[in-house]
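pls ignore typos typing on phone
fe (iii) ion + seq
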Amino acid sequence: MASSKADLHTHSSYSDGLLTPTELVERAASKGLEVLALTDHDCTDGIAEALEAAQKYPQLLLIPGVELSTDMPQEEVHVLGYFLDWRNPAFQDRLDHLRRSRIERGQKMLAKLRRLGIALSWQRIKEIAGDGAVGRPHIALAMLEAGHISSFEEAFDLYLGRNKPAYVEREKITPAEAVQLLTDASGLPVLAHPRDLLNPEPLLVELKEAGLIGIEVYYQDYSQQAIERLLEVAHRHDLLPLGGSDFHGIGGEHERDLGDILLPFEPVEQLIALARQRQLLQASP
Ligand code: AMP
Ligand code: ZN
Ligand code: FE
Ligand code: FE
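k done
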């Protein structure tokens, strides 16, 4: 399969990915990527390690990033942030708070599962999550491991999906708050995987106002038709058309490998130029 020069959406073991940041960077380099963004869910703790690992590969630009989970009344919306000043104390405080709420929420989901006859140990969930912020994928893996379900997807279809019996909401933050939070931490906010949003137009207007600079157009299994529709949306709202694989390294039917999403390089260059312009990136030596 042809490979892209950039992948702007990836997860490491610091959220629900399988590879450590070092392994992720090494894999990206071996695939010939020139730009890689690490975008763990609600967590930036893998960035220092990734930057360190990327020093070995001068041809690879590692973008410090994050993917924030946010909530609308009817759906979950993810917002990516690129080139962010991840050490910003106010930003870290907010992330800390969101992560702690994930722990309580994970325990509540386990309690619901127990009432449904599925007993999992919190200890095991924590082991699976490792350094990562506890999420539904970790619970799904524990269910699979204990033989309660026959596939990862089944955990979501039967129990953990929104509106399914073991689902519990996370602490809420709106997409506009996330865009603001990222902007306050010098990040460049981009709306993640927007194909299936129920009512994207008013949301895009609101987010653009709050500082959104792009949307994902090239993503996982997006069809050519979906890509063309999203390109038009990006163009109309003056947003950069970006994207990536959302690589987690855990397999499953939707998994795409690093660099497997054909992302045109020009918008990536525009993203980097914007980062330079805002002095979020040192000019190349
Ligand atoms: P959480 O942040 O704990 O709510 O978990 C969200 C993550 O669960 C997403 O980023 C996906 O990786 C995964 N996920 C959500 N829905 C599904 C689904 N229907 N099938 C497989 N994975 C899912
Ligand atoms: Zn994930
Ligand atoms: Fe996402
Ligand atoms: Fe993701």
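The domain at 95-160 is CATH 1.10.150.650 (DNA polymerase; domain 1). The chain is about 40% helix and 15% strand. more later
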